[in-house]
């Protein structure tokens, strides 16, 4: 993300100012019209291309290692003949993968009849995830994935859609609650969850769960997902900039 969104010298000199707030304010006050907002060029460095290629190479090596070690056969043999696979921790913990996909028909918060929405996930009043801001839309698409590790109890999660403001505090654009619990996601499949916001509009999440165990398949799978997610995020951001 630092490569794709490099900080300017002015931003580095202003550590107390939010980078998104400062960039938004500077863009609005220096651009004369909408065309000027979209006309700023972006120069891709060779290092970015090398890094995204390195991710692809790492995935290929991991796949070869998976086959060379015969991971599926080892895991099946351990389940049949070995002792029970121990939990990673004394208390069972589960890894939830939450993809914040999109929202539809959000409440307009700005004078132009649009909003600058981003999503925040909160657990027990603490922020555990925040998407990027999508400017000037009522139907934003984020496609961002966050991993949250929780114990085996049911947890209430608040999904808040906020409107980013250049001046003043960000405004509440709508919110909804949902539950994370092993009993809801124990099939380990991806569930599409549509949340109806308390103001207007809907928010789409894709949620899956995996138990954190000291199991060879689990750790290979986690490495695969991490690499794939990073590659997808970089590719999506590059396409958006193009």
From TrEMBL:
<feature type="domain" description="C2">
    <location>
        <begin position="80"/>
        <end position="195"/>
    </location>
</feature>
<dbReference type="InterPro" id="IPR035892">
    <property type="entry name" value="C2_domain_sf"/>
</dbReference>
<dbReference type="InterPro" id="IPR052811">
    <property type="entry name" value="Glucose_resp_signaling"/>
</dbReference>
<protein>
    <submittedName>
        <fullName>C2 domain-containing protein</fullName>
    </submittedName>
</protein>
<dbReference type="InterPro" id="IPR000008">
    <property type="entry name" value="C2_dom"/>
</dbReference>
<dbReference type="Pfam" id="PF00168">
    <property type="entry name" value="C2"/>
</dbReference>
């Amino acid at each position: 993300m630092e490569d794709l969104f490099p900080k300017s010298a002015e931003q580095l000199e202003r550590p107390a100012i939010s980078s998104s707030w400062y960039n938004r304010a500077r863009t609005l006050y220096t651009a004369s019209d909408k065309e000027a907002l979209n006309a700023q060029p972006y120069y891709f460095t060779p290092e970015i291309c090398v890094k995204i290629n390195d991710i692809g190479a790492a995935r290929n090596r991991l796949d070869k290692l998976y086959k060379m070690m015969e991971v599926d056969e080892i895991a099946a043999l351990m389940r049949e003949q070995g002792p029970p696979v121990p939990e990673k921790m004394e208390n069972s913990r589960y890894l939830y993968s939450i993809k914040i996909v999109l929202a539809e028909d959000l409440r307009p918060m700005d004078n132009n009849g649009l909003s600058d929405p981003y999503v925040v996930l909160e657990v027990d009043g603490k922020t555990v995830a925040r998407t990027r801001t999508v400017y000037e839309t009522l139907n934003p698409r984020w496609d961002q994935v966050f991993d949250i590790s929780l114990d085996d109890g049911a947890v209430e999660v608040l999904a808040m859609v906020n409107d980013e403001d250049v001046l003043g505090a960000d405004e509440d654009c709508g919110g909804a609650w949902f539950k994370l619990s092993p009993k809801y996601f124990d099939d380990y499949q991806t569930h599409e969850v549509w949340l109806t916001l308390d103001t207007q509009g809907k928010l789409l999440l894709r949620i899956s769960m995996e138990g954190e165990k000291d199991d060879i398949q689990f750790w290979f799978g986690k490495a695969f997902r991490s690499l794939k997610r990073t590659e997808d995020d970089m590719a999506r951001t590059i396409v958006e900039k193009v």
